[in-house]
Amino acid sequence: MPIDIVVDGMGSDKAPESEIRGAILACRHLDVRVHLVGPEDILRPALRQHLASHNLQNKHLPVFIVPASEWISMDDKAAQAVRAKRDSSMRVGLKMVREGRAAAFFTAGNTGAAMATAKMVLGMLAGVHRPALATVLPTTTGSPSLLLDVGANVDSDPDNLVQFAVMGSIYAQNVLKVRHPRVGLLSIGEEDSKGNTLTHDTLPLLRALPSINFIGNVEGRDLYNGHTDVSVCDGFVGNVALKTSEGLVKLFSVLLRDSLKSTITAQVGALFSRTAFNDFKKRLDYSEYGGAPLLGVRGPCIIGHGSSNEKAIMNGIRVAAEFAQAEVNASIEAALKPPATT
After folding, report:
1. Half-sphere exposure of 114 toward its Cβ, with a 13 Å CA cutoff?
2. How confident is the model over 217-243, as pLDDT tens digits?
3. Which of 48, 87, 198, 294 has a 20 to 30 A CA-CA distance from 153?
4. What does each C-alpha distance from 331 to 14, 132, 194, 335 come to in angstroms?
5. Which top CATH class is 1-128+296-342?
6. Does domain 130-288 sit in CATH 3.40.718.10?
7. DSSP letters along 234-287, please?
8. Is 221 helix (H, G, I), strand (E, B) or coil?
């Protein structure tokens, strides 16, 4: 049976084009129904145009328009926009999840606004003190690696990091299908003595936690070498690591492309290596991973990159559906449920 996913139709840099194309792709290739939220006078004509251009107007694709008179732009100040724009596409979409009319929510819009709106509309899971934004990274082994928090909280305490570890481990196991995910604490060295006050205080708490497969401190290089499946840090460190990674991916792609075109011999070689180059780009392409799950709120919420293209939107819808079907939130609440008092 198709699963209902609600999509912020006005979120990305190229909205609503990317969202509409991504929704159409998702409905053609996934077992989903997509509800695009935004101004009807903008979304409906654009949807009709795209369906007609692909001869899909009579295919009865399950793409629906949900009216919302406002949207939050990338330039809006998150806290102010969340309060002022009460009929925003984010708020209307998240209300659908809260009311059970959709299983999950996806947006490629303003990250700060999406997190604040999700906390306000959905609320927090029982036992969770703060949400965490996670991201999936590629590794040399081909298996995914999860990093959290990457920006939901600039400052965190040891108890927060312990909860992030539990939530990340559950997501890796239930959605990424990693058996017994190895959880590491991101630090500046593997030795227990390395790190700052936060990592020193968090380390013994994670070691004492029987519900996760904790392997100790890990370093930045371990995010990509397959040594760990889940890496935990505060949102300041995680966001710096994520943005640095995005910059390096772009640099590597440009340098490799330029090198292949630099000489006649290289150009001939490039013709034969095009498949390998495309595979290289695919393994590093953020659009393949769909978006970052916001863990800890009472409803599956995926936040995509602002520059998401139609493929990234489709994969964001896919990840949202996988998040909902895996019943991650029920597992998180069970794991973080406070002990019964006698």
Report:
1. 32
2. 999 999 999 999 999 999 999 999 988
3. 87
4. 36, 16, 32, 6
5. alpha beta
6. yes
7. -HHHHHHHHHHHHHHHHHHHHHHHHHHTSSHHHHHHHHHHHHHHHHHHHHH-GG
8. helix
Amino acid 330 reads A
Of 124, 117, 49, the C-alpha closest to 84 is: 117
* pTM higher than the cut 0.70: yes
CA distance 153 to 236: 7
CA–CA distance, 129 with 100 (Å, rounded to integer): 24
Exposed/middle/buried for residue 17 (C-beta within 10 Å: 0-12, 13-18, 19+): middle
What confidence tens digit (pLDDT) does each residue in 261-311 have?
Answer: 666 555 555 555 556 555 555 555 555 667 899 999 999 999 998 888 999
What's the one-letter identity of residue 337?
K
* Cα within 13 Å of Cα(292), Cβ side: 28
Shortest CA distance to 294 belongs to which of 318, 320, 314, 321? 320
Domain parsing of the chain, residue ranges: 1-128+296-342, 130-288
| pLDDT score recorded for residue 110 | 92
